[in-house]
Amino acid sequence: MAIALAFLPVVVLVATWIGFFNVGASTGHWKITEWFLHFAMRSAVRTYALAVEVPDRLPHDGVQPAAGHFARGCAICHGAPGEPRSPAALAMLPQPPDLAQAVGEWEDAELFRLVKHGVRFTGMPAWPTQARDDEVWAMVAFLRELPTMDAARYRDLAYGSGRPPPSRPVRFEDALAECSRCHGSDGLGRSPSTPVIAGQNEAYLLASLRAYAEARRPSGMMQLPTVAIDPAQMQALAKHFAALPPRNDSVSTADAKVSRRGEEIARRGLPLQKVPACLGCHGGPDRNPAYPRLEGQSAAYMTTQLRLFRNGQRGGTRFSHLMESAAKRLSDADIASVAAFFSSLRPPVATHGP
Ligand code: HEC
Ligand code: HEC
Ligand code: HEC
Description:
Blueprint: H1 2-17, H2 31-49, H3 63-73, H4 75-78, H5 87-90, H6 99-102, H7 108-117, H8 134-145, H9 151-159, H10 172-183, H11 202-213, H12 220-228, H13 234-243, H14 256-268, H15 279-282, H16 299-310, H17 320-327, H18 332-344
This protein binds heme C (3 copies).
């Protein structure tokens, strides 16, 4: 018995070497293998999810860009409302489940774990960047809406009103349609978590697009479109959005006291905390055109960016280290104030562009 056991590893190795184990996907797993793999997957997700810190509420602000990302990064395997899974996906082993049905079985922390880290040996990929969690939570918020989402709402969230552009846009019009799915054709952003890019400095837009494509600015949602488009279109897209009129709607309803404190920080900084005056770099007509303008930018978007800068997770252009040290000592309350202040401003229409 002992001798037989001692030889077991050798027997398994030889069986493997002569190709005894069928790795084909066509015949499915043995029942016991299937049971074991599923059991192992569910147990591991449950256990690792214990370490996940769940936010107080899911970021429903981010459902639109998450739907836009889902259309490119997930629907190819899982299908979507009004888009059944393709026969190619159905022939995978294991099959990617229809998520409208599957998500009900998982807690928020478990969905987060699945979407951020993927599942080994199944084809379920990890999120394109491991550097930040807010985008993954936006995806969890989207997944929670899936079971009650009809095809028309999904189509609107994921593609907007236009015709869905090809997934590898080559022509300028198609690349523009790809961006408009999330940014809107007016460049004002289709959700509060999407930045206003209309009227933003062209040099900053172009440098940011390159930073996303090269993963120097981590974002799963922006990496997919910047890698998909023809690189020759980047300059034209930056020029196009920079020339659109910036936001000009009614001024935000932020609390006046909060906004005033934001203005104070913007003009004078916080000398005791060594926070520099924001307008030193972000104000005035002679600012470096590679620095972004903040007037009229969405407060929710700026809040996320400032937290990412503070945590050293934002990345960006070759100037991003300047901003990282400016944000290092901002408290959550400081961040809320400056975001409220800048979002309530309206840029002077005549001087947009560098
Ligand atoms: C290349 C195909 C593929 C892509 C792309 C893909 N998945 Fe999956 N996904 C799978 C497979 C296969 C499974 C089943 C894993 C298993 O059963 O162990 C799965 C499982 C899941 C699960 C767990 C559901 C369950 O009950 O098993 C979730 C949630 C999920 N995927 C979400 C996503 C999201 C969100 C995206 C896009 C960011 C995505 N997937 C992209 C193939 C894919
Ligand atoms: C799936 C939705 C989606 C698509 C498609 C998309 N974007 Fe974005 N975009 C976002 C989100 C979300 C952010 C914020 C990302 C972050 O936190 O860094 C963003 C950020 C940006 C920024 C940075 C702006 C700033 O103020 O720093 C630029 C520039 C940009 N997008 C341009 C584009 C262009 C050009 C395209 C088309 C090639 C495009 N986007 C396609 C969702 C999208
Ligand atoms: C020393 C110059 C400098 C100072 C001071 C500065 N910033 Fe910045 N800021 C930058 C640069 C450069 C970027 C662009 C970083 C990148 O993407 O490479 C930036 C980016 C930002 C962004 C992201 C904008 C976007 O569209 O993504 C926000 C928000 C921001 N700054 C807010 C502030 C606030 C608030 C302060 C004051 C507390 C401040 N900045 C002070 C240089 C500065």
